[in-house]
Amino acid sequence: MKNIQTVNILNHTHWDREWYETFEEFRFRLRNGLRYTQKLLNEGKIDNFFLDGQTIVLDDYKEIVSDEEYERLLAFIHEGKIEVGPWYLLADEFLVSGESMIKNLEIGTTAAKKLGSPYNIGYLPDTFGHISQMPQILQNYGIHAALIFRGAVSDRFENMWEGADGTKVFTIVLPLFEGYYQTFLKSKDFVEKTKSYLDGNAPYLTSGHALIMNGADHTFTSSDVDERVKKLSEEMPEITFKQTLMSEYVKMFAGMEPESTISGEQRDPSKIFILPGVYSTRSYLKNQNQMCEDQAVGIMESLNVWTNGSSDSAKFMEYVWKLILQNQPHDSICGCSVDAVHDEMETRTQKVLSAISQFSKDILHDEFPFEYLADSVENSYLYVINNTPVASQYPVTATIRIPAVTDKGSIKLFHNEEEIVFDVLKRERREEFIHHILAEPHYGDYVIYDVCFLLPFDGAEIKKLRIAAVEDESVVVSSSELQSIQNEFYKIEWHEDSLSITDLETGATYKDQHHFTSSLDAGDTYNYSPPLNENMSKAVISGVSDIIKGETFQSVTVDYEMKLPASLNEDRTGPNDAETTNTMKTMITLHKGKRFIYFKTKINNTAKDQKLKVGFSTSKADISYADTAFDLIQRETLRDKKYDMPKNKEATMNQYPTQSTVIVNEHQLLHRGLQEYEVDEFEGNDHIFLTMIRSVGWLSRRDLRTRGNGAGPGFETPGAQCIGEYEFEYGLVLGKKNMSLNKGKFLRQHVLTQQSYVKKEDQKLFKLSSAEVAFSSFMLKEKNTFDIRLFNPSDEDVNTELFLGFDPEELYEVNFAGEILSRVTAAKQTAITFGPKQIKTIRVKRKGR
Description:
By secondary structure, the protein is an alpha+beta fold. It is about 20% helix and about 35% strand. The chain contains 13 helices and 44 strands.
């Protein structure tokens, strides 16, 4: 302890917005805690307070107190006695997108800046591990320091954290098991406990500036901190004890060159649990979250660019983003809260999807209005909007309305007078209810054509198709008696319990594809834990139906049935004697000209205490790759699994996180919301598994083999058993030369359509030439100006040509805060060069429109 010169006491609380109690229960406690904190500040009993690096607590507080009380809280922030930010909220890092993290910082730093609160540290005290690109994300907001805990192990307190691209931020790694959770200053024997704590920290410190984080989850500091600090100074006169704000503490390390460097992703469980079971707990929440993120970026933000912000919706869009982010704190998106919390999350999800849906409907109707009151006006155009800037064939599904009085039995579609081949999925005559706020509600008699077709897009583009009513009989696709389905690239056959897929380009046949297995799980919402007596179940194919051979696609529905234990036995050591049946119904689709296999699976889960996975056989695979925010990470297959952990230790697991893709040998799996994968041996071969459902009944337990202690309150969570029906979408690409992170957009960003009577020309926005550069987003920043975000997931330099569909006025490279880093040649075709793992934001300024 002789190397410690100052002890900086940070008065704080760690505020999980919802967890073992609901948001409203915690919010009332937040109100009382902030009243208590302000009282202590007013009375001079504490010097300052750090509000957990979040700004959402201000919004939550404001809604349930008077304006006068809220202004009193803000006054403490203006005076520099309370600090907030840089985050809007503390989100999980592995289960949310890079764009969500950027939006989180954008909202948080904007609020902190407005209040005059410093936000100079990437405060991440309790997330369950840390992504490789966090240093680059923080630096892009001008944040040059971080504080981290779980997953990060170092022999030093002060470190440089080097991100995937080489970006470095000064980083405090909390070295002890207790991390940020320090309540000993409230104890009667606080002097002895402080000495013990400092003795534990001293070997890690090189600067002499120790930190006591005086607070914990949902707790506030004692009312006599001043007196206790004086007592510590008396007992240890050689050390200066003081209450310190986080911003002041960070400044103490200005110019310091740490001796130690930590690199990339931080997921080491040797110090403290990283709780990897959360990647698959309540997987329906992950699916819903990614659906919201996809629609926010791929529909809401994209349409705002196409319309140049004409709907004046900036505040509405911020509201939608805040709702999305409110589902992303680690105890929320990780699925490790009480059932009532996750019920409320589903309500937020529905609000987001409904809001974006109406935004999309109104924007599309404003741009391409559909006339439904004047019978003489023909809505003879179909506009198709693709928001993925990659040239390719895209599947399109559309609903076309023809007034019953003018319907001739069939329709044709043309683009530039070239006929488009399509399939009619359904044709029916029905009454349609159509409404708009500027017109009376309308009940119309229409013939409805549900159609699908393939259309080539040269990047992000809007195309106008002409609809023609023709005298003919529509042929609706119908089931056939095929023994397989295929397109130019793949042939798929079905067998007793799995599929075989032939790559028609190489002739290679992959057997034992797309099978379902289930193993018992004696874990909780935080960790998977196999029971002592394991049981493995495998589904069989019970039927095949709806084999469709259309002009533009072929598809089949395969039914699986699995007999498995109904639950664990009473002592949780093996299977219960009772048996139940799970069913899985998978629709498999091959589109003409598309090197992509689409899967949509509906699961009816009736089993408890189990992990249900979909598997694909592969050759021996000691290495796999999966994406996290703005990166593609190489991972090793863990063969030697060790369970039965001692107290406060957690097993290193073979399950890994994935954002949208997993690459193993010749397989690239794409998905939405299936964010846990593993590569493991099964029936003599290595298999790639995506976890679809993990059924557990406890928030936390203390009897797991894979974790030697509890991770939260021991509450029952029957909702986490995930009994009921769930639907997931995923895809497969075979062949290394065909792989790209952009393939996930084909699955997760659908082409938009709108029927209209207005005739407009085709429009091109932009496209990328390289499949190696990954596309993330494009978003409007101000009128005539939008940002394109791209990244390089590889370890090599890569280039792409950026083709614009118009003559730009100016092009810049900017950081995430919008500050100009460099000018780019303003031309319709521009080369963009990326260093390894580099994220770039290109700001495009259009000439006035």
